[in-house]
Design brief:
738 residues; 3-stranded antiparallel β-sheet; coiled coil; 3-stranded mixed β-sheet; CR006_AAA; P-loop_NTPase; rod-shaped; AAA family ATPase
Amino acid sequence: MYAENARGKTTLVSIFRSLQTGDPLPIRERRRLGGTRAAQVALAFSDEANAMVFQDGQWSAAKANIAVFDEQFINDNVYSGLVVQSPQREGLHGLIVGARGVALLRSLQTEVDAIEKHNVQLRTLAATIPQKALRGLTIDQFCELPRLEDIDARIEEAGKAVSAAQQQEAITKMRALEELPAIELPPEAIETLLREQLPDVAAEAERRVSAHLQRLGLGGEAWVAQGQRIQHEHRAELGEDCPYCAQSLAPSALAQAYSQHFSATYNELKAKIQRTIQRLDQIYGATALDRIRAQFSENSSKSLFWSEFIDAPQLEADVEAFLAAAIRARDSLLQQLKQKAEAPLEAFSLSTGTQEALHALTVQCRTIDEYNSRVREINEKAAAVREAVSVTSLQTLRDDLARLEAGKDRFDPSIDAKCSAYLSEKAAKKSTESRRSARKRALDAHLQNVFPAFQEAINLYLRRLNAGFRIDGVKSLNTRRGPSCVYSVVIDNSPNHPVSVNSDAIGEPSFKTVLSTSDRNTLALAVFLASISQDEERPQKVVVIDDPINSLDEHRAFATVSEIRRLAAEVEQVIVLSHSRPLVCHLWESPGQIGRIAIEVARSGAGSTLRIWDVSTHGVTEHDKRHAKLRTYLDNQVDNPREVAEAIRPTLEAFLRVAYPEHFPPGTLLGRFRLIASQHVGGATQILCQNDVDELATLTDYANRFHHDTNPAWQTADINDAELLAFVRRVVAFTKRA
């Protein structure tokens, strides 16, 4: 499609762009200045049952299989002005990922948006839960607290732990409780002692000694015992004589009784009785019993102290009853032991009263055993508290207490329902996050493959378009604005110095300085062509290209035409719009084109209209026209033979310039060429044979009669039809040579 400037070509491109997206804005922006009528458009497509109609500010339907290359495409996806900014990088990212990638991005964004809605709802639900109830926990920690059936007991225990930590010094110094002695008297051993007798000591002898000693009174037994010892120690000197009166002791029965009474066995028995009496007084004497009473009182004070920090058992015992039983048993035993001491050789048994006293003491000792068991329990718990306050900080214990108190509030009916709603919303968010992760993995897998492939495609088209650079490092980058694409430009003659499109440092090479306008446009076209090549639906694509050779030099313009021809074979349809008539003609001349049509946007009054354009009237050269005029004259006599005569010399010059370009460059005259050709006749570098040189000279001489450079009267020179016809026939024949 050809159009001169200001004929509406860009408006047509905007119509296609609007149809592609269904967005009416591109059409509204192209409204005629001062116009009042609403825009109306109708486009018919062979693959659509109904025409696409734009009316009342909207399209009847969009046509997504249209791809448009124009300034808007460049501005959206490649560069704007002289730089590549965030919008272009983001646009290129979308272009590279393609329809599938865009769908993956949209599905991912849907889950991201859903997560944000979950977050808003979670914040709303969290705000309904009293901050005081949290006690320093996060809302998630609070709502996820477990239900504890014994929560009150745990809170009480934790409170005591905190209290203990606050009194660490006192706890560390507090000694353990002491167990009360609960020593039971062994009745069997005492009864055995009471029954013990000495078979070697005669009872009559003991009776006599005892009666005599009673008569002697206080100190008598010691006095007699001393005499017995002296007599025994000096038996060698004294013999059987008394150490006091020196009379013989042999006939004295009392003296014999003394020997038995003061024997070692007898003395041992009496000593054993005395030791047992002393032991009873030591265990159950007044001092011992007072010590037990004092220890009981001290234990009670310590138990009261520890009850603030532990769940201490009741430390109770009827200590007075125990002491009374101990005194009664002690006194009963002492009484019987004293009887035994008075008559060591006499056997005694435990009296009924003594037995009852001992049984009562045994019962009381059992209560003391229970008391001591509780003492041990208190000591174990106290030790645990003492260890805890030494290794656990006060703040940790306070946190534990706060957590337990929060756990109690968590299941308060007024809060439980709110926490349940929060946890339900949190579970829904977790499910959404799982879907987001799955979509993110799918997108990442797609991006991992598509970016290298797209880079390769862009570089392929850059090579085909004869660009002196390539791109490298094309990759996806996540930014706060969204996904973006970054890459570098690599100039062919400086491959070790890539220039990032992100670089905007002043005084340093950048996108705007390393690429010319032609380079930038070439890159934009390569990006567009790469996007089409990577599109799985390209066979159904309608491709619209607006001024593809803008600012391109001749060799890139030719390469562009070649790529458009290649593209036409791969897509449904290609529509090229241009202000360049040579470009349109060049495309029209492409071999093998089927179903092509040329349209001109022509002026019609104050507006424009579309009409079929005869490319042949504009696509042929002046040489083609002159040659055609000569051929026509051979077939039919023309109205103006002078034009035919004037066309002979230019026709010869054009032929020679093409046939012998090295010898007939632009600006060369026919006379000069004839001279050169004559000089080379017959040689290795012959240009024309002699006959051709002569024929060219004859034809030139005739043609000069009708040329302004060689005949001042060229416009009035006489023309003979037969002569002209003969020379035209010779000229046509000469220019047909191989």
